[in-house]
Amino acid sequence: MNFDDTPEEAAFRSKARDWISANAPRELHAGLSKLGFGQSDAGVGDPMQAAKQWQKKKQEGGWAALRWPREYGGAGASAIEQVIWQSEEGAYAKLGGAFTIGLGMCGPTLMTWGTEEDKRKRLPKLASGEEIWCQLFSEPIAGSDLAGIRTRAAPEGDEWVVNGQKIWTSGAKESDWGLLIARTDTGVAKHRGLTMFFLDMKSPGVEVRPIKQMNGDAHFNEVYFTDVRIPDAQRLGAVGQGWTVALTTLMNERMSIGGSMPTGFDELLNYAEEIETEHGRAINDPRVRSRLASYAVKATGLQYSAYRSISALSRGEEPGPENSIGKLVAGSMLQDVSRFALDLQGEYGLIIDEKLSPDNARFQRMLMRSPATRIEGGSDEILRNIIAERVLGLPADIRVDKDVAFDRIPTAASAGGR
Amino acid sequence: MNFDDTPEEAAFRSKARDWISANAPRELHAGLSKLGFGQSDAGVGDPMQAAKQWQKKKQEGGWAALRWPREYGGAGASAIEQVIWQSEEGAYAKLGGAFTIGLGMCGPTLMTWGTEEDKRKRLPKLASGEEIWCQLFSEPIAGSDLAGIRTRAAPEGDEWVVNGQKIWTSGAKESDWGLLIARTDTGVAKHRGLTMFFLDMKSPGVEVRPIKQMNGDAHFNEVYFTDVRIPDAQRLGAVGQGWTVALTTLMNERMSIGGSMPTGFDELLNYAEEIETEHGRAINDPRVRSRLASYAVKATGLQYSAYRSISALSRGEEPGPENSIGKLVAGSMLQDVSRFALDLQGEYGLIIDEKLSPDNARFQRMLMRSPATRIEGGSDEILRNIIAERVLGLPADIRVDKDVAFDRIPTAASAGGR
Amino acid sequence: MQFDFSSEQKELQTSVRRFFTDNSPNSAARGVLESTAGHDESLWKKVGEQGFLAAAIPEAQGGVGAGYLELCVVAQEAGRALAALPTVSSIYQAAEFLMAVGTPEQQAKWLPRLASGEAIGTVAVTEAAGPLNPKAITTRVTNQRLTGTKLPVADGSAADFAIVAAKDEHSGISLFIAELAADGVERTPVETVDPSRKHARLDFDGAVVEPLGAPGEGLALIERIRDRAAVLTAFEQIGGAQAALDMARDYALQRFAFGRQIGSFQAIKHMLADMYVSLELARSNAYYGAWALSVDSDRLPAAAASARVAATQAYQLCAANNIQVHGGMGFTWEFDCHLHYRRSNYLALALGGPSHWEERLIESVRVNPALKAA
Amino acid sequence: MQFDFSSEQKELQTSVRRFFTDNSPNSAARGVLESTAGHDESLWKKVGEQGFLAAAIPEAQGGVGAGYLELCVVAQEAGRALAALPTVSSIYQAAEFLMAVGTPEQQAKWLPRLASGEAIGTVAVTEAAGPLNPKAITTRVTNQRLTGTKLPVADGSAADFAIVAAKDEHSGISLFIAELAADGVERTPVETVDPSRKHARLDFDGAVVEPLGAPGEGLALIERIRDRAAVLTAFEQIGGAQAALDMARDYALQRFAFGRQIGSFQAIKHMLADMYVSLELARSNAYYGAWALSVDSDRLPAAAASARVAATQAYQLCAANNIQVHGGMGFTWEFDCHLHYRRSNYLALALGGPSHWEERLIESVRVNPALKAA
Description:
The complex is a heterotetramer, with two copies of chain A and two copies of chain C. Chain A is of the alpha+beta class. Helix content of chain A is 41%, strand content 13%. Chain A is built from twelve helices and ten strands. The longest helix of chain A has 29 residues, at 286-314. The N and C termini of chain A lie far apart (57 Å). By secondary structure, chain C is α+β, with helices and mostly antiparallel strands. Chain C has three domains: 7-119, Acyl-CoA dehydrogenase/oxidase, N-terminal domain (Butyryl-Coa Dehydrogenase, subunit A, domain 1, Orthogonal Bundle), CATH 1.10.540.10; 122-215, Beta Barrel (Butyryl-CoA Dehydrogenase, subunit A, domain 2); 219-373, Butyryl-CoA Dehydrogenase, subunit A, domain 3. Chain C has eleven helices and nine strands. Chain C has helices at residues 7-23, 26-34, 41-50, 68-80, 87-101, 104-116, 218-254, 266-294, 300-326, 337-350, 354-367; strands spanning 121-124, 140-142, 145-154, 161-167, 173-179, 185-190, 199-212, 256-257, 260-261. In chain C, strand 4 (161-167) and strand 5 form a beta hairpin. In chain C, helix 7 runs antiparallel to helix 8 (266-294) and helix 7 (218-254) runs parallel beside helix 9. Chain C is globular. Chain C starts with 6 loop residues before the first helix and ends in a 7-residue tail after the last helix. Chains B and C meet through helix 4, helix 8, helix 9, helix 10 and helix 12 of B and helix 7, strand 9, helix 8, helix 9 and helix 11 of C.
């Protein structure tokens, strides 16, 4: 048990620190630092341009896609080195949101299932930020029930013709490539009729429509497919093996290690030092202290759980479903913390205006963004099921859609359009 | 909307008050008053004798089984009169625990399903406390899943021969009569093979064994039946109609109106006025105040919900499944309140001794009793299901035991004795 | 004892609900939210014509004089319909201040117009984040002229007058009526978490005001009126919570996943059951508050605080979980879930946040233990 | 960075677990609980022989000198096994006081015997309900003679000596060692929520004592040692929480209702998932505490408080929900659920209740923000 760097780790850290101090866009640091959860304007001008510049610089310096092999544009580093890098990169990491899906999920899937040629062609461009990827999984009818997707891919010669609709696709508008799961057989059980592809997002017939979120942002999109043609060479895994391929993607989602989820604790602690309640300075108000303490153990608990994962990873263990706790705990905590902070502000807390609201409207933005956290990337309910079934070994829910041909599974429509 | 008594109600209240002041066992009042949730020794000498005396006196005075018709030993009073009586009876009501099941559940079931002769013979003795009843429903294998009971009743001439085991029977040892649900047909679906009886608890073959609870008390019993004979005349409802009859009993359980569930709020509020925390008097400690406030709205919410039920009842409406909220809220609150009170006491809170512990070990006893509240008479999970299905109209759980002959329903044994 | 609304009040509820269903679908609230409109003016006019707003204002002052229970019924339906109306500021507060401490002239000038909806009043108290106390008020009146800044002021752009808390010449906190179209008043819209009920910043620079109520009694008066407003707002909150619960229930019945209605999963069933429980506790507390308000009971402070605390919990829970039940759709601008989420958080803070009311609840329960549960 | 126990420590864990499985089944804890025995004497002897207790006591003082991480491993397994042993008093506290501030003579006299289990030490601080502060201590030492009453004192009947907090001749709070077989000491068993770890009342009437540590430093020393004990106790708590979760999970797999394993209902699945989450948060906090203890980090106060707060939450939740999963059976004396329920509530209060540690956590985090989450 050791929290301190080994000499090798310390050397790596100092190398990273030096490189960042010489190369990072220092002028953006202040804006990035104060950017809170649910806030999107870091005042960096064109965010995509800033992101691409930083990613490219990192790749040139050997700091991008740290854990990927060098031949695919990575740095061949260890899990702990990645963590050290992340802690040194700090606020600059907020520049790289556009690459999260590609580097964290699509790349590793391609690494496992793609041909050598695919990998050598695509991965370095992903690592350097030249190409952006998105993940085309969820559909309006299939969210938690991902295997219930209905987008069809029909074979035609050595191509596939895709029709259907995806939703909740982050960054679809900016993406060059997409990882697409589609149904290639409706006559077999739902998990068995799926196939995975990657496709050029500029293909004819692909239409992207942004979804306006409740907080006014539009990070997500709907993506419509009308007779979109994908070469069979861009299939990942066998026909009908799509669900297995998707599990690689989802496992890598959990594998996005290092910095644990934001929870709002630090922000609330800092804020409590600044303001007054009916009982004096908030940090001295026993009610506030008690709440802070129960948030504190969640925040540190998640952080140290992430460290435990990294330690396991560096011993060569695969990150398992136990990593589901992060978002489960952080999601409702963010909502709770933001409500509590607004309560401390009283009626004034209503104001949501970066210039007027305390702490740059941090908690107001968090309030409006946090409900999505409990849903995106696996709802609270799905995560509890994952923990119950895959960690604790409890039975699966009773399934009425198992061993039934996909086209015979009950739906809202078949139930009389309720 | 009116919280005050009408003139008629005020007259009834004053009559009740006068009668109580003239007839109640005043010497027991102090002991009964300080008796908390989970505490059993009110220092009343022989509790059963004291209970029977008070019940008999009430019946002679026309204050027993208030809402029952006079011909069955009751007083023919209204729902609101019963509430007024209960508020006046106050701590003396704690004497009557032994009659709760009989008056609240067995009597009303007999009233609905018994013959006129049964009713005239049995109900007045129940009302006067001369005869005690118990309810023989749950079994080791069938708790939440009550319809899964296995105790068999086989016809033989104009008798039934009963074999099996019941559990969680309050007051079985003291009871003269029992309300028994048994399986009379294992070849039909589980809800359809049941029949209800009442039986003399002194019948040969009935054996009662007390169950020691985790808090040391033994209010519950196991009851074993070995070739116990019940005359067919003591059948309630038709053969196979037992589930319907049981629903009457369970509905009447909810109908036990008036004084809402104890929650521990008053006790905690009083205690907070007395003790010190690290921030001075507990009642002035913002942390304590905040907790008290959230308990307060639950306690008053339940109390006023009970008043709303009474108002509905007095308009002739039947009390519905919405009354399930009482125990659901109070159960976990009692556990929470007791832990919080012990926390305020610090290490000293470990002591569970009426003479040494603060407030007569009230919160320690509550701590040790409250886990049962979340289970007995419908677990939290069952109550949430009842609210979801019967109040909100959501679909039932998927049932693998429906439309299956009882003897083919999967069990632990059939699943390989796991 | 009769702990329910009377059959006449229930009939009123039916007709008010029908009125709002016809005249204030969620799209109306959305219309205000998405525009710069201060409130739903055509709805406000109709509500005024119906006399709904005037339920608790005496006939002699242009009201209907029906009573507070009737006003609670209206409030509940307004909350359910997400009505984009200045109810909290104009009816639950401004009118109440005038009825409580207005001079006959002040009452005659404003009450009939508030009752009809012709005029809108508001309350301008807050200036900064944190609890309300004398330190938090720097606005000042000298020679009947007001200087300082108030924000956020509900309906501040639409209101004809504001009741302003300010330091008087003896440095006590007093109340004043400021007409907002007058010289020396500048109004700037302020964005809040719920733009379906707009707020403004009011800058006063020597605006002429007249005193309302006894000097130095400002904070006590605010507390007194907020107790009354808290009960009425609690009814808006339980109306909103009910609507959010209904939305969630309906969606759970409609939406299929894994070949079943999602409402058949216990995770969803029990979440909805908990929402229901929270709502029922709030409803019962609100009923008690309504009774205390209607008979001017000395239990009003405790009853109001209980109603307020429970209703805030219930609406925040129901609105947040309604999003959760809707999944990704619940987080879109297009779905109405966020209207309730916004409203629930607005109403939670409108009269001071939950912790303020928790404090007030315990203080009041200690003074008047009659509220304690049996 | 290596945030886990080493493979040697994991091997130790395996062997300690095997030891406790063989020598301390739940029935052993139940045996103590149902008898007047102060603790499980034969187990204590064996544990002493194994050297488990002595893990953190230097070899020079009769210990094993392995370290605190090893002692954490032992504590976790003792908690898991519900071991009816005086660990919290004799090892996590008395030995720590002696190592921290004992004179060489005091250390030589007691430490080897504590390490071997031959002697038992305890701590006698509490006298009344409420927080620990100078007002709460009325016991007094004059001329090296102690007068006053302490309760509850863990293992007070079995212990050879107690470290007593008392007012000294200058009215400061100091610590003293009192041998409990001496004249002027009366011990009376006191019933607590967890009789598998017995407590006593100690009445001192002029008992001879000797000072421990600097005069007037009693409360500061207690706080310092409690931080260390908190980490070790947290490991007992997470061991217990894990055992309670395992029991609940096993029962949910075994028990059928409605024709299915009850563990197939989401209500049960999600309850167990929440127990797991709580336990993992506690485990991670405890690991950090173990590290801080093992290297004597200046982050120990914050780390200890976090470990303590999280572990108390986890064990209380897991033990209570274990009863819930078991249904009626969980509430019987016969089933072992109440052993964990009792233990969880005992350990929650043993070093001061949750709110005390919440306070300490925030105070420490402010002093040393290094603990703050990234």
